[in-house]
């Protein structure tokens, strides 16, 4: 992911990890501390989920695609359906940031999409999601120090 421009900051990734972990733990107080009912909080939630999705797509999903692992040259990335799909998902999540203040449920939809990415695209089971999120948080903190 080193050559990909990061349209987010470390705090946004960490916020998304903490929010999903709070939801998984059914810790309502932690959820309320991380997200209230204001428009700004809704935007922050959607933006954080986009940041986490970006980390997952570019840090784990794309590197594991068979076309990448086999180093197959398609001439142009537009000819790689899996890559197009991954980027399409990210673009949709990024577009939601602008809608979050109108419909606060957008953040919840984005969190659901991030969970889908984790479970459907990384080989992680629902029981393994907390550990997966811990490893994302640890890697994020390690890379933020440098």
Overview of this structure, please?
The chain has helices at residues 10-24, 28-34, 39-64, 66-69, 81-97, 105-121, 129-144. With 146 residues, the protein is mainly α. It starts with 9 loop residues before the first helix and ends with a helix.
Would you kindly provide a brief summary of this structure?
Helix content is 70%, strand content 0%.
Secondary structure elements and pairings:
Blueprint: H1 10-24, H2 28-34, H3 39-64, H4 66-69, H5 81-97, H6 105-121, H7 129-144
Helix pairs in contact: 1-2, 1-3, 1-7, 3-5, 3-6
- Proportion of β residues? under 5%
How far apart are the first and last residues' alpha carbons, in Å?
Answer: 15 Å
The biggest sheet amounts to: none
| Overall mean pLDDT | 86
